[in-house]
Amino acid sequence: MFANPESSSQFDISEQEMEKLVGEVIRYILFKTEQTSGCPIRREDLTQLISAKGYRQRNLPAFVINEAKFKLSSIFGYDLLELQRSRSSAASGRSSQSQQPDAKTYVIMSKLPPEVFSKYVEDTKSSHMKGITFAVVGIVQLSGGKIAEENLCHHMKRLGLNENEANNPDSVSIKLALETLLHQRYLQKEKVNGPDGNIWCYQLAERALEKSFHDRIKEYVSQMIQNDEVPSQDD
Questions:
Q1: How far, in Å, CA of 76 to CA of 22, rounded?
Q2: Which of 30, 61, 181, 220 has the most CB atoms at less than 10 Å from its CB?
């Protein structure tokens, strides 16, 4: 069953073929999400997956992706979120002769309550990275959405992360954490001219600016501030 059964008839494709296409897109999204630890999936890759089957109808990819979105929600309990790749402040400040639109990507987010997801779905081996993500994005948020690499690494050391590859395979180094957050598009990195020469800075990327995640980060930051303001019993 389709979310828009009337619209599916315009492509001159049997219901069985359409179901198969939607199923393949869903499998690809779930597999790539697991394989890449939640890195955004390019819309271009989903379009190519459909066109590789020999279909050339112009609006077919959009229809199939929308149907996959409907089934991911109704059957698997995931929201398929569309993200517009954000540009760094330096890149957006430069005029470009090319007017090509920014690439669209997708991520899936569970619709389960956080406590239920943590108990029954989340992989305990990677759950520590979720805490690191919240902490690091919170630090960048408190810094106005942009922070020098040196300052960010200083804060991450205070969180207990090692600067280089950790000897303990169960721990995460600063280098690995930042690489992961860059690939997952929570952060983006740019070179900035400073008083002492060029420095690297990190700023929030589209994944961190997505409304539902951004709201959770604001709540997390508010709790951090409140905890800092609560006087200890020894005061």
A1: 14
A2: 181
Instruction: Kindly list the distances between the CA atom of residue 215 and the CA atoms of 1, 90, 204, in Å, as whole numbers in the listed order.
Output: 34, 26, 14
- The model's pTM is 0.76
b/e burial code for range 39-59 (CB count within 10 A of at least 16 → b): bbbebeebbebbeeeeeeeee
Q: Which of 34-38, 46-50, 128-132, 217-221 has the highest mean pLDDT?
A: 46-50
Q: And the tokens for 98?
A: 């090319």
Q: Which candidate, 51, 40, 30, 68, places its Cα nearest to that of 205? A: 40
Nearest to 11, CA basis, from 49, 72, 64 = 64
Residue 98, pLDDT score: 46
Alpha carbon distance 63, 26 (integer Å): 13
Among 95, 120, 121, 124, smallest CA distance to 108 is for 121
What angle (nearest 5°) sits at the alpha carbon of residue 150, between those of residues 149 and 151?
90
Do 21 and 64 meet the contact criterion of CB atoms below 8 Å apart?
yes
Q: Which residues pair with 194 in a beta bridge?
A: 197
Nearest-angstrom CA–CA distance, 46 and 84: 15
Question: CA 191, CA 189: separation in Å to the nearest integer?
Answer: 7
DSSP character for 108? E
Residue 130's pLDDT is what? Answer: 82
> Which CA distances in Å does 53 have to 21, 23, 72, 136, 226?
9, 13, 22, 42, 55
